[in-house]
Amino acid sequence: MLACATLLYTYLTLPAIYTSVFIIGLGANVWGLKSVLQKWKILGHINVFLLNLGIANFLFLPTLPFLSAYYFMKSKWIFGNAFCKITRFCFNLNLYGSIGFLTCISVYRYLAIVHPMKVMGRITVTHSVAISVMVWLLVSVQSFPDMFFPKNEPNRTEKCYHTTSKEYVEDYLKYSVGWTFTGFVIPLLILLGCYGHVTLVLCRINTIDKVVKQRSLKLMFILILLFSVCYIPYHIFKNLSLYSRVLYSTNKKYPSWDKTVFCAHQISRGLVCLNSVLNPLVYLHVMDIPAQIRQMLQHFRQIFFNTNDSHEFVYYTVLHPVNYCSLFLQQQFGHKLLYKYI
What we know:
It is found in: Membrane. This protein is mainly α. It is built from 13 helices and no strands.
């Protein structure tokens, strides 16, 4: 029963998911990148990471029709071995590139809230570009060895495995575990550390602007959703499935939990590609900011310029509205600050 359900999912549901993600993801990412380019100067340095996040999606989305056709034809690949490896490589670039740039956005937001003047004022566009290049290099170095593993069996050249053939599965498991640690676990720990600290800061200071708290919590929810739905299940079940195959190659017998893990892994492969649809939620979260900036500035003028306080208040923002200048103002109330319009 479980085997039939798995086959039904693999050959019908998975192609349907890929087709839907291709259509919806293409439209959502075109809209997202268009919005980023239109508001390039308003967004500041974070626009570089958003742009690269969109590029990562566009590397993967054009391959989905081919993968959809592959599974719809009951795992028969008719596009050649070279294109099979390119397709799988693009998938990995999208997956780990997305994780990398989401982590960069999280660190940027963390610095903007916790260290708005000490660090954020020193970050330039050049730094953001250099970090983006470094992310692409790391992701490429991590993903490139995958292309050297065979994607089909010697006597089954019509296959296009997303891992490798049974002869090399033990070596691939070792590679996959290291890849998971460097490409997923470390970014996840960085993200959790950043947003854990941000949450403490937001909860500790009761005078923080309500809009600031809402926007921080919204982004945190989006990223938790992305990692919980798309990334965590995929990495867990991928490595468990590989481990099961290693056990079979050693003992000539699959463990009792193999079918359950295999089924969960197939489902997680459909879920992981949803990141190309969910990533534009990050664009959506950042896009609705100009009106809030004007509202915040007007609010500041009403508060400070209509008082008799002897201090001179000049406000500072860091080239991006979600740097939460209001948090910095509340922490530094009564001190002379520098304000520069974006």
